[in-house]
Amino acid sequence: MPPKLRIHPPLLNTASPWSTSHTHLTSLLRSPSLGAVTTRTSLLAGFPHDPSRHRYAFFDPAALSVPGSNNTSSTTATATKSSTFSGPPEDSLTNNIPQTSTLTPLASLNTLGYSPLPLSAYLSMISSFTSPASSSPKTIIISITGSPSEISSSYGLISSFFHSSSSSPSSSAFPLAIEINLSCPNIPNLPPPAYSPSSLATYLAALPIASDIPIGIKIPPYTHAGQFDDFVSALLGSHSPSAPASSSAPVPASKLSFITATNTLGSSLLLGPSSSSSPEPLLPDAGIGGMAGPPLHPLALGNVAILRRRFDADPRLAHLDIIGVGGVYDGQGYKRMRSVGAMAVGIATALGRQGVDVFTSIEKDINSAW
């Protein structure tokens, strides 16, 4: 059985532009309302971030009409050019979005890739953090991606760091976990691997048979039964050339401790205002990116609920915990995610919009009844 992921309180940030820098992570670690902190997804060599192309924007999900048209769409909206940002370090090491307690819950759309900082930078950051003596140390989830061979190399680096930290407590005061992001919709010519059972099988095969660090994978939103069937089949080894011969043999899912569901919904478009009948995309190039925030919430809830039922129905999958992510910004959203089977609840868009105080606000909403 793989090691259990420990998160208490069961609330955390997820990989996002607002968990990129040392400043971001320090602020998150200081919040007593989080039980874990997730780094922005990193590659071995860092992602070639281009601030002119990789940007994000917030929008009001209640304003979905397209200028000059009577039509509405769940993946189009109007906004202003001034509301787009490239993310750190180009904008700043902190979020300059105005933050007040009366902010309207906003959705987000992004054309971002991964962190411009390499994995080694995050390991260096983690080694510099100290845990308050007055509280239990938070788990730090290191989010990584790359090819299967790069994932294997990344695991080796993290494992070596973990074991050197264990022998030298001053090196890291925090438990570690690994999240493998197989779900970004914004990488050209590279569809999210978790949509392809054969690609997913290749990644699962690259993971160690036994790890003392909890490992999970972050998946994209699934929208029909066939995608859930394919995902479960990959977890059970049905798409692997070396599929287990019997139900008692170890399956690929035995390498995993958790699933993060879900990432952003791709193929979404945000249109800027225009006096003509053809408004331009707000974000660069074609403007197609990943949507998150309140409009994603019902789909994310459905994904968590379906996966929890599927996992509980098979003893080979029942050990898998689910971090529920998508559109949560208050106590009611937190409770909904927990009610459908999320072991813990992750937040990204609301963190970008409201800052770290969003976690304190959620704890207050639920009266600390985790």
UniProtKB/TrEMBL annotation:
Gene3D superfamilies: Aldolase class I, Dihydroorotate Dehydrogenase A, chain A, domain 2
Keyword annotations: Flavoprotein, FMN, Oxidoreductase, Pyrimidine biosynthesis
Stretches for region Disordered: 68-97
Pathway: Pyrimidine metabolism; UMP biosynthesis via de novo pathway
Domain Dihydroorotate dehydrogenase catalytic: 93-368
Positions with biased composition (Low complexity): 69-86
Signal peptide: none
InterPro entries assigned to the protein according to its UniProt record, in alphabetical order: Aldolase_TIM (IPR013785), DHO_dehydrogenase (IPR050074), Dihydro_DH_chainA_dom2 (IPR023359), Dihydroorotate_DH_cat (IPR005720)
Source organism of this protein record: Trichoderma ghanense
Name of the protein this chain belongs to: Dihydroorotate dehydrogenase
Superkingdom classification of source: Eukaryota
Requisite cofactors: FMN
